[in-house]
Design a protein that fits this description.
Helix content is 41%, strand content 16%. It is an alpha/beta fold.
Amino acid sequence: MALVLLLLLPYAGCVIQKTRCPLTLKRDGIDSANYYRPGDHLISGVISATNTLFRAHSFNSTPSTSFLWKGTTKYWQLLSFVFSIQEINRNPKLLPNITLGYSIHENFFDGRVTYDALLDLLSPGQANIPNYNCGRQTNVFTVLEGAGSQNSIWISTLLGTYKIPQVSYAFVSNVLNDKKQYPFFYRMVPKEEAQYPGIVKLLHHFRWTLIGLIAPDTDDGERFMKTLTPVLTRSDVCVVISLTIQGLNTNTIRTDLFPFLKWKQVHVFVYYAEMTYFLDGMLTVQNALEMKSLVGKIWITTAMWDVSLELMYSGLSSQQIHGIFSFFIETNERTKYDDFEPFFFAIKQFWDKAFRCSYLKDALSVKGWTRCREREKPEVLLPQDDLQRSLSLDCHRIYNAVQTMAHALNAAYSSRSKQRVRERLEAQRLQPWQLHPFLGNSQFYNASMDLVYLDENGELVADLDIVNWVVFPNRSVLRVKFGSIDRQGSPDLKCTIDQEAIVWPKWLNQTLPTSRCVGSCEPGFVKVIQEGKPICCYDCIPCAKGTISTQEDAEHCTKCLEDHHPNKAQYKCVPKITIFLAYGEYLGILLTSFALLLSLTTVIVLGIFIKYLDTPLVKANNRDLSYILLVSLLLSFLSSFLFIGQPRKMTCFLRQTVFSIIFSVAVSSVLAKTITVVLAFLATKPGNRMRRWLGKSLANSIVISCSTVQVAICTLWLGLSPPFPESDLHSHAGEIVLQCNEGSIALFYSSLCYMGFLAAICFTVAFLARKLPGAFNEAKLITFSMLVFCSVWVSFVPTYLSTKGKYMVAVQVFSMLASSAGLLGCIFFPKCYIILHRPDLNTKEHLTTKTKEGT
């Protein structure tokens, strides 16, 4: 209250004496008007429709309240208030038998005028003396105001004494959310923090990562800087310019241009817009940048109100601004503001005919306000088009606020007794403090307000339109909706942006402005922050081998799924190629051809031996063992087909065991042949008892016993841990190798070692018997064959272990074919040569002669 007295000190004498006070706010001969209509309850309004600049006080002259007019007055804000009251009074279902009145004051965004208007509202007599009844009481029920942050705080301080509800439709400071200090303040629009997630979404959509923050040098501007900066930092947006514009409240405005010169890449500014100084900050920065040839910026403002008039009558150059973006609660579509004069004229006509005084008259009351009382039956109405236009502006919030307060008042009366007898109305009339329980209820917000509601945390939020304000060279203004922020019904924001709807200046050639420290990292690269610089300044390095990045400016690279691998540019995963030793590829065709050729050769050799089975040469070399060996060699050639083609359960199950058993039979046959040769030589000596060992029984026993051991190993192998098909996803980059897992590696190598053991014994015995005399000493042939056999398999082991995938299988198939071919060629080709081309050597006499000479 001390502050009130201090502000009103120059006028205290005349108020007490009820004489004319000098508080006459003249603007080109226009006095401050109090638009008034009586009623059972008054919804008072303190409307901030005109932006002004009051002259500073000096101590060498009488204080003056004259001011400079800084723009066009938004008279339709007053009209929306009046229209809403009229609509309520005409509604028989809302507040029946109760008439709402109003008392509207313009405060010009000035504290002194605001206090004078409040004193006028709270003082029922001729003089502005609160708490002095003068014979009757005031019927002020609620106060609707849009006075700005500081004035709202002053209003709340004064109204709190009387517990009168204060409903604000302006975007004011969060300080007023403190219910302990301001228990009777009700906000009808969300906090500006509701825009912050939308600002982040907008910056991310256009990939503007290097920005500047601009705010006036006020408490709200400082809070804006401290609140939004960490939000942007957490969202990987770098704030490299934090400019506080000093002097907006004075005639001297100072701007530090060094950050702009250092960060010339910044083309986007987020501007905290106060209603009083919306244009001052933008003009200051633009004029300063224009001098340094740093023009053409994007302005994202926190102004959630209609700024069309400010832009229309501002000095902003349409050729030096990329765009002005803001967030708007009202979603009604609206076209260009290209001609306001007819609208102003329509409002003037309406006001002249609907009220008993004009806002152009000079008549003054003793309280310093020109009271313009609404006529009892005004016959004039604003044209419907003009009325709809007025309600499509941001003053639609005023209309909604008045309607919502009327619903709250109706709910308060409905909760009382249903008796509404006219003569008892005075006794039943509600007091202002009785309305607070209904204003604090969530239905107060959710029932009547379009797209403004309480969220799950009790915070007032709204669904927002993202709009682009376009200023044309002819000073007309176009508001274009190009996106929306949808909150309702979802825990996350749903951001929709239609980039094609944005109207860019023609000199931009429809190109999107950039605001980045460096260019984007292409997919396939990862960001690496440059030391000592903001996180938005980084280098781009390729992703590590085996990883990808699918988005621009990726912070890390990711691995592909196991059945995929990175493409060459490392920006996407492609399916791996499935490989195995197929029949259709060159290696498969080559091995298949060799296997078929050797199988056919074996069949031919077997046919020769069968045809000439009675010749001395065939008989002398143990005909039955030769048949067993040839058949086993034929099967070994054919078993290679189990290794070629896509591995399946049955082929994996059989391939290694069949190969091991067949080769064991073949080597056992060769060993039996070798032992038979040795025994045959020993049996020719006189008195040697080895003759009795000669015969089929010994040879068959050797083959069966040696093969049985291998069969036992393979049976144990298949019973404990059999081979099975598997996919090798990691051995080869970009390939999935289909192969057979051998199951028990120990048993696999046991079978190989056993075959090697048999081959080593056979080679040793044959090597020792190679010089035995005879017409056709088969031991020599066996020695060479086993030398080839052992050489192949000794080289097989390291080669097999050093290869992967289908080449490992190819090595084994080649070893099988080569070793079997060595046995076939070294043992049987010389015999076939004698049988077919040297029949003179295939006689018993020749073999006997040679034996005797050897003896």
